[in-house]
Amino acid sequence: MQIAWLPNIYFELGTHLLRLTTLSRLSLVEGLEKYIMLKRASIVLLALLLLPGLALAQSQTRATFFVGKLFTDGNPGEVDVTLSCNTGLPLNQTKSIAPLISASDYVDFVVTDFDEGEMDCDVTESAPAGYTPLYFFGRTTEELPLSLADAQAGEGQQGFGLSDEGCFFEDVPNEENAEGDLFCLVINYPDPVEVSITKDWVIEGEHLNGVSTDYRVSLVCDGPIVSANNGGHIKNIADPLATVGAGLVFWNWNGSADETFIAEVRPDSFGSNNCQVFETVFDSAVEVDNNCGSIDIDVGNDVSCTIVNTVFFEGIPTLSQYGLAILVLLMAGVGFVGFRRFA
Q: How far is CA 212 from CA 29, 284, 308, 310, in A?
């Protein structure tokens, strides 16, 4: 604060005092005494005006939290993120943030007027439906991270941590006394989507008469199949990133009766994942009505479909054992008569 104008105050005070002594016929000594008294009073008044401001400037604390957001499937949507602290101003603040493109996209939360080393804060998001959050947090002297890999690979992090509940900062110091920036990176992973395939048989007739009901149902997806309920062969259970062919993964089920097959598929490309369902039957007498075909895989939306196999068997009319016996006797009688006529 500039205080160079103080001598001017004293000069003006002295000038007025000299005038006062002249007009009131006061002695020079009395005038000097009054001048000294006024000077002291002005210093006290100045102290009363300046010291509270100086004390406030010296005692004010400040902390800045940088918060960033990522979706692993490329979702461009914004989310609400809240910073809550046990002391300081404000105690709670919420901002809407978009996914990171560069380090400048981090959103800053500022808290002031707290007791240094006694403030604890946490950062949480309103997680969108169908996603699970992962929080990475700490203090860094490097550029703010743009991915979990960047954050883990950085050499300037201090006290960093991973959590699925929030970013947590304890005993936060005044930023003037701290090294590096406090950061919180929130990463959202899509939850697996359940794909349910129901297999139904319709048998028309009393007997299959040797018709095979064996079949194979195949699920082919352009996103990772992370689990399935039974049987078959899969390429990506152990390694969710493994692919077959042109970026596709698959699972096969084998069966011969009514059954429901369930798989979980994790979307990895926002709004564009798809699965195809195929069935292979091993008898030409089986008709297939595949209501599954192409299935869109969207975050937070489970899907189900049905495949119906039908066998038509009309059969040939038959006689009971008694009918067969009578038929044999009739045929034998006709044969006997014919033999007598032509013998």
A: 130, 9, 15, 12
Give the chain's count of helices (H) and strands (E): 4, 18
Q: What letter does residue 99 receive in the DSSP assignment? A: P
Q: What is the DSSP string of 242-272?
A: --BTTTBEEEEEEESS-EEEEEEE---STTT
**CATH fold match for the domains 62-190 and 193-312:** yes
Residue pair 21/30 in contact by the 8 Å Cβ criterion: yes
Dump the DSSP string for 110-138: EEES--TT-EEEEEEE-PPTTEEEEEEEE
SS3 at position 33: helix
CA distance 136 to 186: 6
> CB burial class (10 A; 0-12, 13-18, 19+) of residue 291?
exposed
Query: What pLDDT sits at residue 86?
Result: 96
Q: Are 304 and 196 in contact (CB under 8 A)?
A: yes
Q: What is the pTM of this model?
A: 0.67
Identify the band that residue 60 occupies on the pLDDT scale cut at 50, 70 and 90: confident
Helix residue ranges, H only, the chain: 6-24, 28-59, 148-153, 321-342
- In the block, residue with structure tokens 């699970």: 132
pLDDT-derived band at 18, boundaries 50, 70, 90 = very low
The domain ranges of the chain are 6-59, 62-190, 193-312
Q: Of 198-207, 214-223, 272-281, which gets the smallest average pLDDT? A: 198-207
Q: Domain 62-190 adopts which CATH fold?
A: Immunoglobulin-like (2.60.40)
Rounded distance between C-alpha atoms, residue 276 and residue 336, angstroms: 68
Per DSSP, the three-state class of 196 is strand
Sort strands 181-190 and 62-71 into parallel, antiparallel or unpaired. parallel
Q: Does the domain spanning 193-312 belong to CATH 2.60.40?
A: yes
For 157-182, the DSSP string reads EEEEEEESS-EEEEEEPPGGG--SEE
